[in-house]
Every structure is written in structure tokens, then in C-alpha cells.
Design a protein that fits this description.
This protein is α/β, with parallel strands linked by helices and about 325 residues long. The protein has three domains: about 150 residues, Rossmann fold (3-Layer(aba) Sandwich); about 50 residues; about 110 residues, Fumarate Reductase Iron-sulfur Protein, Chain B, domain 2 (Orthogonal Bundle). It has nine helices and nine strands. Helix 1 packs antiparallel against helix 2, helix 3 packs across helix 5 and helix 7 packs across helix 9.
Amino acid sequence: MDAQVADFAPLDESADADAIIARIDAAGIVGMGGGRYPSARKLREARAADVRFAIGNGMASEPGASADTTLLGQHFEAVVAGLEIVGRCLNGAGLALAVPPGSKLPAPAIEVGVPFAGDEQRLAAHFATRTAPNAGQPSDYGVAVFNVATLFAIFEAVTLGRALRRRIVSVGETDQWLAIGTPLAELPIAAAGELRVNGPLTGRPARANAVVEASTFSVGPARAPADPCIRCGWCAPACPESLVAEHLHDAFEANAEAAAVFDCIECGACTAVCPSGIDLVNEFRALKEQTRHRAALRERADAARARSDARSERLARQARQRQAQRAARLSSNHSW
Ligand code: SF4
Ligand code: SF4
């Protein structure tokens, strides 16, 4: 990793939460586990909600995406320090670091757990309640979850005064530090063909002009073309939200709407088990857009119809009034 000059004066231990969060904002830090949510906003919202537990998420849930694990191996203390900075912002929140099974890391002063491969919601539920995970947002459990790369960036911004300018990315089989803004087309892996960003399960096909973004944790080859759905039913039991992915797939194929798709948390469990290799998560993202778009069109059509009905009603009322006035004139006694 190249040395980076400081962009700001480092903050010391006396910096309060407002100063730290302002620094995180100025450094341009966003959720680097794919979420892209501004970290300063997340911290302000967590403070407003009196969140008292923060989790560092280093679970690397996408196959082949080992950047977070490599980062933990290279900069474990800095990641823990980043988590402790988050704890200072959250009034001394309880802290935990979720790492993959088999991780050999130095013992920190905070809890390091190996719960299971899973998404943010279930990590939050696991650490907050120590019970079987179920649905809900981390804030429902009084928990804020930060990807380990985000925590490293927070450490660098606050302690070393560095803005977010590069990140570690799994590129094919290797993990590399890349400048944010690097065109993916310039990576050697691009010579092999189409690319996919952020994993085979929940990632997306890379656009032609795509660059490394703060949230780009992996770049790999595009998925192989899918086969047709064979109605095997494997996707249904895999879904943590009890959705039948096969039915959502049918709705997508039929260019239809499906309200149930909004319960999909895009975890990729159905994609992982599908023997036909269907990119279900991206289908469901498109289905959400499609369903929202149709609902918006319907709303606009309803509003236009309501305006038209109101106009017709007004014109009819005016015609009735004119008719009544005319009848009144005709029936009145004239004095000429
Ligand atoms: S991605 Fe698939 S498994 Fe995950 S919630 Fe959505 S439908 Fe269910
Ligand atoms: S797992 Fe794939 S092939 Fe099997 S029913 Fe679901 S979508 Fe169809």
C-alpha cells in the first residue's frame, strides 16, 4: 500500500463526537461493504437513536471476496482502533468484531465473534440478543454495523488525517490496494471479458465505464449465462425471508409486478443454490424497480383520472346552473 500524505490534521483523544463525525464526513467515508451509505450520517442517526452497540463486520460473505479478511490480517489493530473511535461517537457503545471462522487474529480488548455467514441484520440480532436471528434492521436491536474497511478508513481519517482515496479490492484471485476512481477496464482481469462487481451472488454486472468506488470490494469475471428455471424448488427453503424466489423469477420474466419482492433483503442465498445459475438477486432488484415504476405510473394515472372526473363534474354543474338560471328567467314575470 502506498504511503498517503495527510489531508487534515490528525485528531487526538480529546476530540469529541461532533469533531470526529465532521472529520469522517470531510474524509468522504461511506459504507465500504457495498452499502455506500455515508458513515457520518449513519453515526449521527445512531447517536440520535441512542444506539449503544457497534459491530465491525468482517464476514466476507461473497465467494471469492477476501479483501476484508486480508485487510484484517494486514491492519487488525487499525480496524479495532476504528471500531473504538465509533464507540467514542456512540457514548462508549459496546463493541464486537465479526470475523470469518478460522481467522487467526491477535486478541483484542473487544469481543471477536464468529457467528455465521450472514447479512447485517442477522449479525446485529446475533450480537444484540444472542438469540436466533430474525428479520429487522440493525437499529431495531440498538446496533450499528460498520464494515471493517469502513472502520479502517475511519481510523486513517481521524488518527492520521487521511481522506478516503484508496481501498483494498479482491481482483480475481488476489487482493490489491487500488486508488478509488481506477477504471476497471485498466485492470488486467478486464482482458478476459465482462466483469462483475462485488461478488457472484449479490454483486452486479460492471458497466462499461465502471471505476473502483469506495464500496467496491471485489471485481471478478461476469457470471456464466443462466439456464432456464427447472422448477427444482431449491430456492424456497434457502430464503431467510420465506419468499419463493421461483415465483419472483416468474414475475420478473413476465415483466409483471410483485409486491412481495420488497421483502427481499438481497442476501443472495437463493442465487447460491440455484442449479440453473440464474442471477436472481439482480432480477429482484430490477423487479423492485419495475414494481415501483408501475405503481408510480398508476398513481399518476389515478391523479389524472381524478382531475378529469373533477373537471367533468364542474362542467356538468355549470351547465346545470346555466340551465336553471335560464329556466328561472323564462318563467319570471316581465314588466314590458
Ligand atoms: S435474495 Fe433470495 S434468498 Fe435472499 S431474501 Fe431475496 S429471495 Fe430470499
Ligand atoms: S432454484 Fe433456480 S431453477 Fe430451481 S426453482 Fe429456484 S429459480 Fe428455478
